[in-house]
Amino acid sequence: MDKVRTTPKTTANRMKSYLEEGKRFDGRTPEQFRELTIEKDVSIKAEGSVRVRLGKTEVIVGIKMATSEPYADSPTKGNLMVTAELLPLSSPRYESGPPKIGAIEWARVTDRGIRESGFVDFEKLCIEEGKKVWTVFVDVYSVNDDGNLMDAATIGAIAAMKIAKVPKYDAEKDKVLYDELTDEGLPLTDIVPVAVSVHKLGKTLIVDPTRDEEDVSESRTTIGSSKGVISSLQKSNSAALEIEEIKKVFEISARISEEILDKIEKAIK
Amino acid sequence: MTEFKSSSDNVKETSSKNSFQRPDGRSVTEMRPVKAKVGVIPCADGSAMFQSGKTIAIAAVYGPKKMHPQHQQNPRKGQLRCEYNMISFSVDDRIRPGRNRRAMEISEITKWALEPVVMLEDYPNQVVDVHVNIIQADAGTRCAGINAAAMALAHAGIPMKDMVSSVSIGKLDKTLVVDLTKEEEDFEEGEGPTDIPISMTTSGKVTHMQLDGKIGVKQLQESVDMANVACKEIYEIQKEALKKAVEDIK
């Protein structure tokens, strides 16, 4: 019934001392993800949609497309909008109303991770130069927050974008026919920016924290990378990292990113 | 998951026009196939999913907990707070995330539909939050939302004196039908479509009713009787899903 919900200090201390022996409460190793499942087509109204589960953490992601005028400085390029919303439904911590800083950071980091990587070929989203382009909306919603929504969001966004189909566009009537999807997918490249966050708890670096672990985490570094090339990074929270530590963070993140991509590819086949 | 196919196919069609053809071939008293499940959101104190045809609603309940902001506390009894929200990709034309007037009205309607059955007298200064989200919409979203919310409240162990079930009755031209789809809502022939969402308790009390269109008194009376029959069917599905959750724990 209390308003502030967080992991008690005694639990935090025990968690850290366990981690020093390389153990976690749920039996995982520090660099091990929870079971990842991806379910396709959670909403038939979307051009592509998925439900991603990381253990008990769950997000849903849907792709919608609409036509609009291009921006004046990029007349031949389509647009991408990634939004992420922490639904009050998904945790006792989230309340209705304008998004708070946690939700804003979650949405912005997810957006940059996809946008900056070169995953989308924006030129191919152009319908008529200077007049009509596609805007791709990637909307992420949390359904159950048991930690690491950050990575789940990007995994969901990538999976949904990969399975999305472009709807038919009637140029004469300037109308998108949402009931008639073409066979054509989104113009994606093979640079897939899977983001992996590495957390620091006490002296240990871990990935894919549960809710309790995320509460105890002193520092989170989210890195979007593809085949060892890093395209986005955000170091969050107040604790500082040693130079050696942050170098290790890059390695862990890039390595696990490839494992996760493998899992995504298998799940959406 | 409790799956259900309407059993009222054989029920005598009371409507004057027996020959009326629905686009999906259902009889006038037949609901769409329903699926219901509770416990879909582990973080919540209670949660449920209710699917009717292509309409899918999920609901989560948090509380009773202390009401914030404090000036909204009621020292006499606890309060119910409902929020209805459509996911941006639940319909053809993307909905901009955030509150809109339609969602705010339906949130209040949902509260009014459920309030008569929840017993919050023993929870002064507290609030029970109900969050309803529509993942996929094909008409009847407020009804699916109310059905899911009622199940989530029961799943959360909130004291209730009855269950609430909800269905929309439609009048297409001159014929009354149960559980409209979007295609039927856009029906243009004759007198056009009339949409009448109704929520009822198991004991047959009406807790929510709305109407859009045109209809005579006699036929409107008839539509309440049709809703009563359909709501009893829905209640059985809700009850089965709740029982299943208890059995799963055992």
Walk me through what this model shows.
The complex is a heterodimer of chains A (269) and B (250). Chain A has helices at residues 9-20, 101-115, 149-163, 211-216, 243-268; strands spanning 36-40, 48-54, 57-68, 79-85, 126-128, 132-144, 165-170, 175-185, 194-201, 204-207, 219-226, 229-236. Chain A is an alpha+beta fold and 269 residues long. Chain A has one domain: GHMP Kinase, N-terminal domain (Ribosomal Protein S5, domain 2, 2-Layer Sandwich), CATH 3.30.230. In chain A, the strands form three sheets. In chain A, strands 1, 2, 3, 4, 5 and 6 form a six-stranded mixed beta sheet that branches. A four-stranded antiparallel beta sheet of chain A has the order 10-9-11-12, with helices on both faces. The longest helix of chain A has 26 residues, at 243-268. Chain B has a single domain (21-249), classed as 2-Layer Sandwich (Ribosomal Protein S5, domain 2). Chain B has helices spanning 101-114, 141-155, 182-185, 217-249, and strands at 2-4, 34-38, 46-52, 55-66, 79-86, 126-136, 164-172, 175-178, 193-201, 206-209. A six-stranded mixed beta sheet of chain B has the order 1-2-3-4-6-5. In chain B, strands 8-7-9-10 form a four-stranded antiparallel beta sheet. The longest helix of chain B has 33 residues, at 217-249. Chain B is globular. Chain B starts with a strand and ends with a helix. The A-B interface holds A 1, 3, 42-46, 49, 56, 58, 60, 62-64, 66, 83, 85, 87-92, 96, 137, 139, 141, 143-146, 178-179 and B 41-44, 47, 54, 56, 58-60, 62, 64-66, 68, 83, 85, 87-94, 97, 99, 129, 131-133, 135-137.
